[in-house]
Write the structure tokens for this entry.
Amino acid sequence: MHTILLITQSLFREQHLLICMKVHYKKRKSREKKEREQRWQLSMEPRISIVYSSDLKRAYETAETIARNCGGLEVIKDPDLRERHLGDLQGYSPRETAKNRQKAYQAFVSGQKDLEIPGGGESLDQLYQRCTSCLYRIAKKHRGKRVVVVSHGGAIRALHGRAFPHGPSAGKIMNTSVNIFRISDEDEWTIKVWGDVSHLNQTGFLDSGFGGDKTSDLDDAKS
């Protein structure tokens, strides 16, 4: 069984540091922290061995901060962890695309899985194949290890679909959310923790620091 901590890119330096506190968590005596530790079962897991990241800027900056605070680990860039390629929408805001790139925008919001976005953009099926193949490859390479992977909302939504092909929905993918995937040698996927943002409690980021709606992938693809 392979353990992958899959983390959504963060937008702010403070979020980088809070993620580090989460993934490098130690035992504490208070009841609240004991409950968190039981939830994460970090004492039962091997230490983080390596960090992978999308090669896009915000994801890579998040990964670098995590790696630096977990003993100076190596960060391996993998373009297969990138956000969905949006073709003619690439580099534009949701407001701009809805107005000036109508055909591409309609393809993007259609939900049709095999529909490619004009201008060389990916279909949802292509995104799914790229991301799931990448994560399985990483898991197989680091058998028995605990690996951190930093990616983007659309990519992580696709990976959730591999573990839960018939639902439930992934819901809103929040920036800095931590998700624990387990992948077996037989290519069976389970999710042990999904969308955990408890490390941001009492910080104000829970109210103001997140993307994750249907058009937030546009913003991720700009970085």
